[in-house]
Design brief:
This protein has four helices and nine strands, in the order E-E-E-H-H-E-E-E-H-E-H-E-E. Helix 1 crosses helix 2 (50-57). With 178 residues, the chain is of the alpha+beta class.
Length: 178
């Protein structure tokens, strides 16, 4: 019987190794690609293959998180485009069947992110998270709204689609800590 438990594993380097193996992360990417997320999630990404994805997550411009629902991997999230107290969020479900309650997962990660503290243990790291979604990705937009995100507006030609070979409209969404 499911217990609706969300666990979040930061993808970090500690004591000489990463918290998940390269092959594990590559397999998540391959699964997402096969599920068609390359057309929506990775359309503008600075990586287009599993090794480049691992290298990106292990670099200084991204922070990755592996999410588990009831002990099973359900989602991969990464933050990038960091500002003073902001970041852009990207995600893909690992297996839509295991992504049973995406609103709870999204809310759980948002709460987790807004509870992260700076080195002093008091100062919040994030006041706002943002995201860009293809205008026609209605499923993702509905999920974000249900999880408390707001749509700030539409930017014509806001995302370059490597699949289409042209820039397409993007919806800018955000959620604030308060």
């Amino acid at each position: 019987m499911p217990n609706d438990r969300l666990d979040i594993l930061p993808y970090v380097y500690d004591n000489g190794s990463w918290s998940a193996t390269d092959s594990f992360i590559k397999n998540l990417f391959i699964g997402a690609y096969k599920a068609g997320y390359h057309e929506t999630v990775f359309c503008e990404a600075p990586f287009q293959d599993p090794s480049a994805f691992v290298n990106y997550l292990q670099g200084p411009r991204a922070a990755g998180y592996i999410l588990f629902w009831d002990g099973e991997v359900c989602c991969m999230i990464w933050l990038d485009t960091f500002g003073k107290r902001s970041a852009e969020l990207h995600y893909f479900p690992v297996d839509p069947q295991k992504f049973r309650d995406p609103v709870k997962v999204a809310k759980g990660f948002t709460e987790f992110a807004f509870n992260l503290k700076a080195g002093d243990g008091e100062t919040p790291i994030f006041d706002v998270l943002t995201g860009k979604t293809l205008e026609d990705n209605i499923k993702a937009r509905v999920l974000l709204r249900a999880a408390g995100w707001k749509e700030a507006g539409l930017i014509p030609q806001g995302i370059f689609s490597q699949i289409k070979g042209e820039s397409v409209p993007a919806v800018i969404s955000y959620i604030t800590r308060r």
